[in-house]
Amino acid sequence: MKALVFHGEGQKSWQNVPDPGIEDAGDAVIRVEAVTICGTDLHIMKGDVPEVNPGTVLGHEAVGEVVETGGDVRSVRPGDRVLVSCISACGRCRFCRENRFGQCLGGGGWILGHLIDGTQAEYVRVPFADLSVHPLPNAVSSEDAVLLADIFPTAYEVGVLSGRVGPGDTVVVVGAGPVGLATIATARLYTPGRVIAVDFAQSRLEAARAVGADVTVGADEDPELLVDDLTNGLGADVVVEAVGVPETFEQCTRMVRPVGRVANVGVHGKPAALHLESLWSKDVTITTGLVDTYSTPLLLEMMAAGRLPAAPALVTHRFTLPQMEEAYDIFAGAAGTGALKVVLGASSHDAVSVPAQAP
Fold first, then answer.
1. Are both 131 and 231 inside the same structural domain?
2. N or C: which end of the chain has fewer CB within 10 A?
3. The 236-241 sheet, strands edge to edge
4. Are residues 142 and 221 both part of a single domain?
5. DSSP string computed for 39-91
6. CB-neighbour burial class of residue 102 (10 A; exposed 0-12, middle 13-18, buried 19+)
7. Contact 67, 78 (CB under 8 A)
8. Taking the CA of residue 267 as centre, how many other CA atoms within 13 Å lie in the half-sphere pointing to its CB?
9. What is the domain extent for residue 134?
10. What is this structure's pTM?
11. Distance (Å, rounded) from C-alpha 292 to C-alpha 185?
């Protein structure tokens, strides 16, 4: 088959690799129908995730069709259309029993495109299939479903829930890329008083307004002063860092109010300063985390019901699978291309239409 293979910092290629097969009784092999590129993949290409070995097939988000299952798999069977989660879960270890699948001790966690071959390929082997793939209703398109593999559960769990967004809160989201936009959309579910989006790119700020941001501000337009003005000098109740660089993390800690919360979602490849000389007395809570994807079934129901922004709001570029390297270039050059989420290989499917009830 063909796959996108990582060859070391800054090096990748779309090339022939061996077909995956069943290696464990809990495995499923999926024919990839739709796949996307994550900001974390760009961090891998920059060398920020050194545990990814050269020769690894990248990618951890996909939708596809089950073609083969191991003898222990019970939840799906060949022919099923499924969502491949970015997190795999053994279901037996201490952390899995606590719904902390990202910290799985039994061979799961973030392994696809990280510790084992991933989803940016024509086929992918998914371990622990009973807990790591989700059957899809026909009412959810492949483009919509692939947004649920990573960005929506990450935004919801690591940003909104960890940040404890509540009614009336002032919420600042620093970084209006795909995860930042998903954070804005899912924060709206908790009726905050206002959501402020911060980014350099005007196209991303426009997208932020489209998914529910009340206020947008350029990262070069003194967002700290704006937050100060809008909160009468108090600061934001919740600040979500969705970029992954030291400067934005430190900025988030300056914009949060006393007894506020900073939820770090961004993937960091360099150290950031923690200014305890100004934070020690403010009772600020700072959370970090890898997504666990326990919320995926709920988010899938919400997507099917039309309660979440779908692909038209977030997907800006579409490619075939053989255009993988071009898609990486477009996604990595988002400042010039305006790329948000890119989807490769999505195909059509038959949607079920429900007739309206007679009055």
1. no
2. C
3. 215-218, 194-199, 170-174, 236-241, 256-264, 285-287
4. no
5. HHHHHHHTTS-TTSPTTPBP---EEEEEEEE-TT--S--TT-EEEEPSSB--S
6. buried
7. yes
8. 17
9. 2-150+292-344
10. 0.93
11. 19
Q: What is the three-class DSSP state of 286?
A: strand
Do residues 36 and 344 make contact, with C-beta atoms less than 8 angstroms apart?
yes
Q: What is the pLDDT of residue 355?
A: 41
- Which tokens go with 61? 């988000």
**H or E element: which one contains 304?**
helix 296-304
Q: Which of 1, 35, 17, 81 is nearest to 324 (CA)?
A: 35
Identify any residues that bridge with 197 across adjacent strands, giving them in sequence order: 173, 216
Same domain membership, residue 305 and residue 233: no
Contacts of 22 (CB under 8 A, 6+ apart): 29, 68, 69, 70, 125
Among residues 25, 42, 16, which one has the least CA distance to residue 125? 25
Q: Could you report the per-residue pLDDT of 251-297, keeping only the tens digit for each? A: 999 999 999 999 999 999 899 999 999 999 999 999 999 999 999 99
CATH (domain of 101): 3.90.180.10
Both tokens assigned to 110: 């973030």
Whose structure tokens read 């050059």?
333
The tokens for 68 are 């083969």
Given a contact cutoff of 8 angstroms between Cβ atoms, the answer to whether 148 and 157 are in contact is: no
Q: What is residue 351's predicted lDDT score, i.e. its pLDDT?
A: 42
**Same structural domain, 32 and 17:** yes
Number of CB atoms found within 10 A of residue 327's CB: 25
pLDDT digits (tens, 9 = 90+) for 191-200: 999 999 999 9
201 and 130 belong to one structural domain: no
Do residues 263 and 302 both lie within one domain? no
Question: Domain for residue 248, yes or no?
Answer: yes
List of the chain residues with pLDDT < 50: 348-359
- Taking the C-alpha atoms of residue 87 and residue 154, their distance in angstroms, rounded to an integer, is 11
The structural domain count of the chain equals: 2
**168 and 48 inside one domain:** no
Pair 183, 143 in one domain? no
Is 353 part of any domain? no
Please check whether residue 50 lies inside any domain of the structure.
yes
CA distance 309 to 323: 26
Q: Are 33 and 84 in contact (CB under 8 A)?
A: no
Residue 316 half-sphere exposure toward CB, CA atoms < 13 A: 17
